[in-house]
Automatic annotation (TrEMBL):
SUPFAM superfamilies: GST C-terminal domain-like. It comes from Bambusicola thoracicus. InterPro entries: Glutathione-S-Trfase_C-like, Glutathione-S-Trfase_C_sf, GST_alpha, GST_C, GST_superfamily. Transmembrane segments: none annotated. This is glutathione transferase. It comes from the Eukaryota. Keywords: Transferase. One of its GO terms (biological process) is xenobiotic metabolic process. PANTHER family: GLUTATHIONE S-TRANSFERASE, GLUTATHIONE S-TRANSFERASE A1. The lineage of its organism: Eukaryota, Metazoa, Chordata, Craniata, Vertebrata. The keyword Zinc-finger does not apply. Belongs to the GST superfamily. Alpha family. Its EC number is 2.5.1.18.
Amino acid sequence: IDMYVEGLADLNELILHHEFKPANEMEKDLANIMDKATNRYLPVFEKVLKDHGQDFLVGNKLSKADVHLLENILWLEELKPDALAKFPLLQSFKARMSNMPNIKKFLQPGSPKKPIVQEKDVPNVLAIFS
């Protein structure tokens, strides 16, 4: 599980930093994120699901890695809606996970889920880390 979570943390960091890039770097950064996601990270998770034929990453029960994978998938799709186009098993994984009662409730409009970064927070974060 830890190996999967570590890889997902790397992808997560790329996504989170995207919102803080200067406007003239956003397009290039998005291309970099999508390149790494579709050529490095997502193929690994697609292969894991294919190789063991289970519904989840580790065995056949929900783990922390599954929640992290879903979170990254949702964020990638916010950046590029067709991010999973080449990954049918990840598409099925997302559908299964999104239909779990507690996750489905969380993803409904009006839920506590917030954007990756709220626009009002960007100046404060940039001031802290500049």
